[in-house]
UniProtKB/TrEMBL annotation:
GO cellular component, one term: cytosol
Species the sequence originates in: Saccharomonospora piscinae
InterPro entries: P-loop_NTPase, Thymidylate_kin-like_dom, Thymidylate_kin_CS, Thymidylate_kinase
EC number of the protein: 2.7.4.9
Class of this enzyme: transferase
Protein name (Swiss-Prot/TrEMBL): Thymidylate kinase
Any one Pfam family match given in the protein's UniProt record, by short name: Thymidylate_kin
Family: Belongs to the thymidylate kinase family.
UniProt GO BP: dTDP biosynthetic process; dTTP biosynthetic process; dUDP biosynthetic process
Stored PROSITE patterns: THYMIDYLATE_KINASE (PS01331)
Amino acid sequence: MGRLVVVEGLDGAGKRTLTESLTAALRAQGATVTTLAFPRYGRDVHADLVREALHGAHGDLADSVYGMALLYALDRRDAADEIRLALSSHDVVLLDRYVASNAAYQAARLGEGVDGPVVRWVRDLEIDRFGLPVPDRQLLLRVPVDLAARRARTRAEQDTSRKIDAFESDDTLQARCSRMYDALAERGWLSQWHVLDGTRERSRQGADAEQPEDVAALATSLYLGK
């Protein structure tokens, strides 16, 4: 059975780039790796409803904290078998966002803490009721809110398919979400967390927040389960 590793962080933190760097480093060490990103836009109807709501569709759906949280959770529930199959045939499965994203963003929207009702509800729903696999390790890519926002805007300018949505454009929400991620990591919510410095600027070659030797060392730790 493979190891389930999750990359978490704000929009614009560099999760995709870190996932790509880790994938390359793990494969260089002989590990079999596959990746999956949530929400699964274009693949799951619940994810597509999320994207549409965040861009103004479906009336007041985006205003409903629990309604949006349920759509995110249903997207993952529908991917549960895919994740389990991937774990049975790979050494490492890397996920770009997972259950902690739901807990962090919804608690931030409600102004609740790590022990608040919505965090408990997310865990009860996604882990206990839906039976989603529990991650072996969660990586928090920590960046200042203003840097994440600049990166998100630059990404949107370069890729028209990734327009800024209602959550990404709310700096106050992003700041609260950042604090929630820190609290979840400190608590060790669901599993062990490892906090990474995401402030280093990425080059045109795609270098991530971590230097190549740091990514290689992290990949070894993830591969060997240390």
